[in-house]
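Input sequence (173 aa), recorded before submission:
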Amino acid sequence: MNLIITCARHLEPETEEELTSILEEFGDSDVKVSITNMSGILTAETKLNPIDVVRKIKEMLLDEPWSVRYCLRIIPIQKVIETKIEEIEKSIVEWSDQILDDETYRISIEKRNSNVSSQEIITKIADKIKNKVSLEFPDKVLLIEILGNMTGISILKKSDILSIEKTKRSISE
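Predicted structure, token format:
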């Protein structure tokens, strides 16, 4: 899994079809989209760079806002690990060199089907990263997406996460 896609409840099959055709258009005819057991959540495995996929879909929306009807958010995932606080902490710390010395960061956690403590994760990671925290305007977002016993992590710019609604709204303004 290197993409997490959210959609309206009960529109998962339409979202799967839409995403598959978009990724085929971008050159991945072998994409694997899975509807999870969580309502409104799909995952995808594409051979394309997930951050590039988000950028291309944003460009597509600027030209044809109506071309994406079912996907609500598309979140690139750089690494998938088991949902264990130690694993999450270790992986994020290993990757924290992606945050330059003068950059700020924030930790964003989205949990589904899990009772792992968000506060504990944030505390353990924040203790290991020496950069300044900025909750409003971070240079990098340490994204932790917990889906049951699987966790996707990414260190991204805020612009690397695609919210279809926000993008469409910004076009119309």
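Checked by second reader. The chain is about 35% helix and 30% strand.
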